[in-house]
Amino acid sequence: MPERIPPMSSKKFAKILTHGGAIFVRQKSTSHAIFEREKEGDVYRAPVVAGKREISPKYMKMVLRQLGFTDEEIDALL
């Protein structure tokens, strides 16, 4: 299980997702950005709240799971 995930801004979280192999897909006039990650032939997509100063660790863990990150990958990213 990943260690405690620190709260961070949505901008920093987006950089972490990009570093982990997720790509920004789109953001129209909504408050959510869509990220996509391909892993072993499967495509995972998840919405990420944009423009927030602080995102809760629980929300970040949920997004990381939706994008198919394993415990080891999460630990390596953080």
From TrEMBL:
GO terms for molecular function: endonuclease activity; hydrolase activity; mRNA binding. Keywords: Endonuclease, Hydrolase, Nuclease, RNA-binding, Stress response, Toxin-antitoxin system. The keyword Flavoprotein does not apply. Signal peptide: none annotated. Gene3D superfamilies: Hypothetical protein (3.30.920.30). This is Addiction module toxin, HicA family. It comes from Candidatus Ethanoperedens thermophilum.
